[in-house]
Structures are given as C-alpha cells and as structure tokens.
User: Fold this.
Amino acid sequence: MIQDEQQLLVATAELFKERFNIEARTESEVTSIDPEARTIEVRDLRSGTVYREPYDALVLAPGANPVRPPLPGIDLHGIFVLRTIPDSRGIKSWIEDRKAQSAVIVGGGLVGLEMAENLVRLGLSVSVVEMLDQILPPFDPEMAELVQQHLAANQINIQLGSAVAGFAETETGRLEVRTQSGQKLETDLVILSIGVRPETRLAQQAGLQLGKRGGIRVDESMRTSDPNIWAVGDAVESRDFVTGGWTIAALAGPANRQGRVAADVICGRSSSFRGVQATAVVGVFGLTAASTGASEKALRRAGTDSFEAVYLHPVQHAGYYPGASPIHMKLLFSRKDGRILGAQAVGMEGVEKRIDVIAMAIQNRATVYDLEEAELCYAPQYGSAKDPINMAGMIAANALRGDAPLMPWLDMMDSGATLVDVREPEEFAAMHIPGAINMPLTQLRERLVELPLDRELMLNCGVGQRSYYALRILLQNGFKARNLSGGINTFAQFRNRPEFQRSSSTATR
Amino acid sequence: MIQDEQQLLVATAELFKERFNIEARTESEVTSIDPEARTIEVRDLRSGTVYREPYDALVLAPGANPVRPPLPGIDLHGIFVLRTIPDSRGIKSWIEDRKAQSAVIVGGGLVGLEMAENLVRLGLSVSVVEMLDQILPPFDPEMAELVQQHLAANQINIQLGSAVAGFAETETGRLEVRTQSGQKLETDLVILSIGVRPETRLAQQAGLQLGKRGGIRVDESMRTSDPNIWAVGDAVESRDFVTGGWTIAALAGPANRQGRVAADVICGRSSSFRGVQATAVVGVFGLTAASTGASEKALRRAGTDSFEAVYLHPVQHAGYYPGASPIHMKLLFSRKDGRILGAQAVGMEGVEKRIDVIAMAIQNRATVYDLEEAELCYAPQYGSAKDPINMAGMIAANALRGDAPLMPWLDMMDSGATLVDVREPEEFAAMHIPGAINMPLTQLRERLVELPLDRELMLNCGVGQRSYYALRILLQNGFKARNLSGGINTFAQFRNRPEFQRSSSTATR
Assistant:
C-alpha cells in the first residue's frame, strides 16, 4: 500500500540533531556494556573503529527479532523473515527476479496475515501454514475462525495444525516446504512469521536479569536489575494489565509509553508504566479483527476461572440504514463484580471503534454495567440508540443479575440440558444445532406444557434476542433454563473447532 | 437514504402483542389524567369513543414537538416541520407536486443540516437561516465553523445572525422568508428546524411539576412529582452528567436508558439514571462532527471557570498510509485535577471513534492523564502508535504539569505577549497571525538573544508540534512563554468569529 519506502522513516539523524540537539549515531553497533565502569563499546560500521563511550543512564531499546528456527534447509535462498525495510526490499526483488507465482507463509499471526494479503495483491497464490489449530493466536479460536473463513473466501490456502519440518530445493530450483505430517508444498517463496523473540544479547552479556518469558526484566519505572540501565519496547517483559502476569507485547503503543516513562524517571520525575492491555487490530481483505484485554485462553492460562463470556452479532449502525453489516463480538467479564476482562470483535466496519471504547473501559477498571449505560454517538449511519457496546453490556449484566443466565458453549454437550431452538420452522430447517427441538418464540406461551419442568433447558435463536425473550418467559413460568449466547451465529463459529467436536462427540455417546 | 418508509418502523402493535403479550393501542389519544383516581381518559380516534382506563403505574413518554413560532404567515402552505414520517411524506409530495427548486431551512441545528444535505441530494438549492452567530448550537463556535465551511463548499447558502420575522406568499405563488434585518428570500419550501419543546400538555393538566427549562421534572428513578407517574424521553429534564445542572437532551440513547430505569423501578428494582452526557454526532456531505460532555459555552454558562481547552489536528491514521485526513479536535478539562469535561471533533474519518472513547472516559470520570496512557487499536490503516486520543491527553497533561502552558486563544490579543511563529519563512509568508514575528524552530537555539526575557512570549506553528519543542527550549532557557494550542490551524477556525474579531480589535488599539 505504501509506494514510497522513504515514507516509512519517521525521522532522520539530521532531524534529531537539528531539532533536539541529539546526536543519533547510525551504523554504529554497540557490542558490549560494562555496567561497573558505566561504559559501552561501540563499533563504527563504516570505519571499523571500536571505541568506548561513558554513560550516566543507559536505555536499551533493541526490539525483537523474528524467530528463525534451526530447521533443515532454513538458510536456503528464498526463505525470508520480515522485520526491516531491507527485508521487504529483498522479498520484492526476489518476487520480481524469479517472477514468483506462489508463496508459503509459515505462521498465521498478525504479520503473516498482512503478508498474505499483500502477496495476493501482487498476484501470488498464497498458502499459510500454522502449527496451532487456529490463526491469530491473541484471539480465541472461535473468533479467529471468522477471519479464517474470510481468508479462505479470498483464495488463501490455510493449513492449521501443520508444523514445518524443513525446507528443500526442488530440481527446477523452486522451494519445497515439508511438514511434520509428511506433506510437501512447492513454492517460489517462503516467509517465516512464526513470531518474535526479545533481542537480549547485550542485556545478557551485561548480566541483566531476564524474565521467564525471555525478555529483559524491568520494574514499573522501566529500570532493569542494574540501577543505571533502563530498557523499553519489544525487548522487555511487561505486566499484563488484566491478569497481572508477565507478558511480552510487541506493540508500538506500549513501547512508546515505556520510552516516555523511562525518560521521565531518568530526568528525576516519578512515572510508572501501568502495564499492557494488548490492544491490537489487524485488517485483511477488508475485514477487521481487533481485541483488547485478556482472551479466554489467557484467562485460563492465568488460572482465572471466575469469568463469563457473551457473544453477540450486532450490526455496526442502524439496521435500516444502507450498508449495515454485522460485528461479531465476544466480551469477557468477571462473574464476581462484572469487571470487564477482555473483548474481541470481527467485522467489516466499526470494529476497532468498539474495541477502543472497551479498551478505555478496561483501563478505567469499568464493569459491564458501565457498558450498559454508555452514552455513545448515535445517528443512523454511525450506530444505534443501543450501540453494540450497550448490547454487550446488557447481555452480560442480564447474565450477572440472573435475568438471563448463560450456558457456556463448551459445556452444552455435557450439560444434559434439553436444547430448544426458538426460531421459526423455516429457519430451523435451514440449519440447527444437532439434537435441538424447535419451538418458535411465537408459539412458546401456548406450548409451555410440552417442555419439561424437571430438566434444564438451553435456548438458542439466531443471535440471542428471541432466545432472551423466550428465556424470560420460561424463567417466569418456573422452568430452569439458560441461553446459548449469540445463537446459531455463535454455533457457526464453534462447530468446526476441534475442542467443540471433542466436547460434542463425548456428549452424544 | 432510506428508500422504504416501512424500514423506519421498529415494531408493530401486532409484534408487541405476539412477542410480549403487551397491548399497544394505536390511534388512541390520552386526553387527560386523573392522578387521584389513577385513571386516564382515552379517545379512540377511529370510533370516537371516549373511555377511562385505570392504572397502577403510569409512564409518560410523549416526546417533544418542533417549535413553530407564532410569526406572521407561519401557517402558509409550504412551511413544514419534521418530526414524523407523515411530515416527511408531506415534504416529499410538496417538492414533487410543485417541482420545487429551492428550500429555506430555518435553524442550523442537527435536523436542519441533515435536511439541507438531503434536499441538495434531491436537486434543490438550499439556504440555512440561523438566528445565532453559529450553526450547530451544541458545538463551540470555532468548531461549528469547520462544518459551516464544509457546507459552504457544498453550495449551501448559510446566513448566520439572521432571525426570521415572517413569511408571505409571492404573486407567483412562491414563499418569501423575511428576516428581521429586512432581507427577503424567495423559495418554494420552508422547513422549520428551530428546535424542539417538551410535550407537557398532559403533565401540566395533571398538575405534575415542570422544570425551569420546560420539561417534566423527574427524580433519578424517573418518577414525577406524582408517586404513581413516571416520565421518560424528550419530555423530561435530566441532570447534565458533567455540570450537574438540569438539561433537556432530545437524544435516543438516554431516552432508551430512562425507559429501562423507569421499568426497573416500577417492577420493584432499584435503578437510577446517571444523567446525560449529550454525546451527539452529525454527518453532512461526508464530514462528521461529534461531541460529548460539556462545551466551553456550557461550562461558562454553568459558571465553571477552572478549565482549559486544547486544540489538535491529528490525522485519523498513520500519515504515511494512503488517505490520511485530519481530525480537528477540542478537549476541555479541569485545571484542578485534569478531569475530562468535554470533547468535540470534526473531520472526514475516525471522528466518532475518538468521541466515543472520550465519552467512555468521561463516564468513568477519567482524566487527561488517562487519555495519555490509553492503549488503543493501532495498525497503519486504523490509527497511530500515538493515537489522536493519546495526543489530546499529552497536550492537556503537558499544560497541567507546566511543561507546556497554554495561552487561551481569546486572551491572546489582550495578553500583551509577543507572538512568535516558529514555522519556516515560506509557511509564514503564506499565512500568519497579524502581529507575529517569525523565528523558525530550526534557528531558535542560535537566535535566543533576539527574544525578550522580560516579556511573555506566545508561540504558534502549524498544528502545535514545533511550537511545543520551541516552548520547551525557551522555558529551559529562562523565558516566559505559552503556546497557542493547535497553531495556525486553530487560528483559521477562530479568525472569522465575531468574538475573536472583537477581542482582536480591542487589543490592536
């Protein structure tokens, strides 16, 4: 999308000198730190000269490196990583020189997917090989599923649960990607986007403490274990704002904040980094996926179990205004006090707006009750009188108050509950959850006698609105019932997931 | 934009009966309330029958009526208000039947401007006649100015400070709009969009207490002065969440919330309405203007003087990504503790997102320091590592911390300070504030001796970035200096404003 490479450079060394009176020495590699003497050793890459430079305060901001695993054939020509502008230049030249027709991207994270789209736009046919059983690891699998479907619809070949075993050159000079399951993919170009690893060589050499996740350990003022050395950015471990655990977040926003905190503290001001919310967004082929706070996976990893999740599929603006399209949302919140723990959303429009609003709410330690009452911009082309944010809050608050309790999707098959689909017969006929009985909302009041009072009911409709009404009717008539959040639309996100299949197959025995 | 009128109807009486078992009696006018007997008198408009109906709890939701002032000629054919679908039908028929070529809209509020755009799209030439010296009364005048320029660029004729004296029919059967200044505008169609007035006829007849602003007075549980009668929506007065004063907010979101609060309380639940933030958005010809919280005007009206305002003009996403366009923002905050009081923004893209995030921040009583640290979605096509929200927070926090103190725009001419424009000479030559001297940032360090140490300096650049650097250099060198927030871009918003002209002419004497 960016035609002129120069546009990617935020500032030059000359601008730093002129504007800030700061000397930025480019092409100068710091080869070691002497924390006792408070000096660094620098090699001038142009002249080869090596010299020592003293410091009062030292800030490490070396970033992170793309992971390049020691697989057979990893050093073959045509296997690239993407970190720097020269990296991207190398990829483009290779494509032009070889008239490349196809590419294999190893890793389905943010960078991998953005590469996939850009290579398709260059005319290549693209495969993504991902070791995990989902793309976009920061997202929960049933949310990533939506992105995966969109990529498939845009001719991207996605292979999940597929670990690369090695690379080889074919007789015709092309590349062959071999997976552990024995599959072979022939291609002109491989891009490794398996993730990044904090660059800690200097820090280790200087004896600075590292964290368990491999990043430089810093305190809230971004100070390392050496009192005269600070570290910021992708090289450090940070506190997760929601779970409180250590995390490595290779994100530009937090890196910026960390730099300011370190500068404040070095200049004698009290300042501290409040942690990382991991707010992130990616756009592929017009679809936007965004998230903030903890995912369900992250909450489980952190040992948090007192949470609930709601799903919803509201349109981004008034349904009657032309161009309405759904936003698929997941909201995670504490069962104890309603505090918002995280949110994920996928859709064509208005996605990042809702995640940004929830990001601000999480920062302020707000609850789902606050989302219910949020007063947001409304005109028909921008939102609804009840914005998706309000709807998410209401569904969550209804669950917490006991007005509309939830049946978690992964529990449904083992619950022993009777599944009642309250949509109209023609909708039921088109698709329904296996095992469901159909009792339309419009007939429910008259047909209550047909439902068991001694067995729990779980309800679904299309997105959750009608099943909410049905649930209220049932609860007020003495039935025991819970809702499947987000209805058939959420089912469509789960049904291909292996963990759901497993749960399902156990239950139908 | 909406072709099918039926799409504007959210629900039918039949749906209410079928889904909720609620009887919705349409074409039934309530003519009076007997609060003692707890009955209402209803007239069936189809049969003419009048009957009494008892109630346990009564909820009034009559909305508001468009103001139709008793001016000469106000009842002429061709003078419309717009509240209901039949109103819009009447306007469309009139335009078609008369082959109308032009329209005059009286009132430049939200409804007036939306009408203006839609009439232009129907091929009419449109004039807006506004009594005040700005359009969009909820906005501060220098923010409304941006919308006004955009309307003018789209061929809308806007007349500010122009009060209508009356209407007449011309000899050829057209309409003539006469202003108090003696101007006459001939047109085919007049739309009155002067504002709305709470519908309080029934409430008054029942002896319910009204507020000073003319709405039904209710408590936090939406109960009127009669313990068995509640009132919600555009007919009531609400508390302003920021200033604490009474206000009338004819907005759909708050009306929805009020309805839920009243229902909760009637059903025996404790629930209260937290007040109105007045979050609003309007789109005209692709431009979006949005606001939340208090305007500067509203703060002054409420007697709040301990606040500051910052202006900024960031682009909506990374500048190097194609399609970057500015968002003009104004942020109001408490000088005491940095609490956010209000925000307004105008631009082509990403406007309502930023206002929604600030709306959530205001709801949580957050500060500008929270905006500084907000962690929002960033990818080049969505935002920046330092989002406009962060930038607004940083500029405000820099002012509060004393790092970059502000000179309010309306004080500049009376301040006696020396105005220094730190842009490059060619920029200065193209446009500058009268009386400014030019000293580019790039030369500032060398030319400090040319500046007075005994007189305050006020600085401007293009948007405020370079003048921030200049200010820091000056303050650290012992000068007394303040910034003009938002630079030349903000000056362009102020320079045509009468209050600025007045201030300016006083000062240059």
Q: What stands out?
A: Residues 27 and 364 of chain B are 43 Å apart (CA to CA). The two ends of chain B are 52 Å apart (CA to CA).
